[in-house]
Amino acid sequence: MVVYGVALLSLCLLLGTYLGNVLGYLMGIDANVGGVGIAMLLLIILSNLSSKKFAMKPMTESGIHFWSAMYIPIVVAMAAKQNVVAALSSGWLAVIAGVAAVLVSFALVPVITRIGSSSSNATSAKES
Amino acid sequence: MGFSMLEEILAKNGVVTAFLFVGIVVWCSYRLSGTLTKGRLHGSAIAITLGLVLAFIGGKITGGSNGIADFTLLGGVAILGGAMFRDFAIVATAFGADMETIKKAGVLGGVSVILGVVISFVVGAIVAVAFGFTDAVSITTIGAGAATYIVGPVTGTALGASSDVIALSVAAGLVKSVLVMVGTPLVAPLIGLNNPRSAMVYGGLMGTTSGVAGGLAATDPKLVPYGAMTATFYTGAGCLLAPSVLFIIVRAITG
């Protein structure tokens, strides 16, 4: 049943959001810390478990695949409801701060990826 | 009568109308991608950019803060594009993601989240100082805004910053998220953003969930779960670090 997949997805998101809020509470901040990330991990773990113990039926999977495929359209809707006017019209400080933060972060992606891969290569070399 | 009846139906069935609206935007974008750029600029990148342009037009005409969704007819776009559906769809993309890759790059992802918060914060703080801010609270709030537009106001409220400084911090975060959405597909080849590992680092460094979500969707949808997973920890880390450790450091420097 398609709805089983959708329900499983809902369960993961609700549980993840709850755990994220608990995590935020424990850290003393009123925010959801990584709730969606936790939900994603739950779904990955559940889908890996089920492949061994109880195979998920293709119909169940299609309930999840549908929402996965709706992701880009939803992001388009998200883009269409952003406050772009405020982002562009509140002066140079906001624009420069935003642009500079993005450029520096972009530049660091290859640097950190490389650091990580060289250290993991080193450990795997040691192991071998 | 016919028109007002149609209007009423569209407005009443908000989310359904939003599905139609987004479908049309995506269809036009893929046509544009094929005819104008011969597929070089991906259809989804055009669709997201078009969404932002429409949001700008909507905001200009209505004077509201929800982009195109401030038109009564398109109110459903705010629901379809809101945090609930966005998170639901992001989680769905994780289905089929490779557990081993995540385990291997987990530590790297964590490091990049913290580094990402600190770096964006420092850049934002430097810009704030360059624009003449001297008090620790304002500098910290604007620095936090350069992390994400949620970290900015959370920090500003916690520290008691003035409302115009909080507004500036939100704007800085918005600029960041818009630029990440539009810029990611363009810089992806330059920064090696073509595997799950670099996607996790990228998500951790950028941190804006909407920016990363849009940027990766337009670059390579297969990378979405990896980037989105680390990005969702960013705002939490920012809310934790900015009003505490980072504020104390800024206060120590400014005296």
Give a written overview of the molecule.
The complex is a heterodimer of chains A (128) and B (255). Chain A has 128 residues and is an all-alpha fold. Chain A has 2 domains: 1-76, no CATH class; 83-128. Chain A is built from 6 helices and no strands. In chain A, helix 1 packs across helix 2 (35-52) and helix 1 packs across helix 3 (58-69). Chain A is extended, with a radius of gyration of 20 Å. Mean pLDDT of chain A is 81; it is low at 121-128. Chain B has 255 residues and is mainly α. Chain B has 2 domains: 2-81, no CATH class; 100-254, no CATH class. Chain B is built from 12 helices and no strands. Chain B has helices spanning 2-12, 14-36, 43-62, 76-80, 83-93, 99-130, 136-145, 151-159, 163-187, 196-206, 209-219, 224-254. In chain B, helix 7 (136-145) runs antiparallel to helix 8, helix 7 (136-145) runs antiparallel to helix 12 (224-254) and helix 9 (163-187) packs parallel to helix 11. The longest helix of chain B has 32 residues, at 99-130. Chain B is globular, with a radius of gyration of 20 Å. Classes of the chains: A mainly alpha (128), B mainly alpha (255).
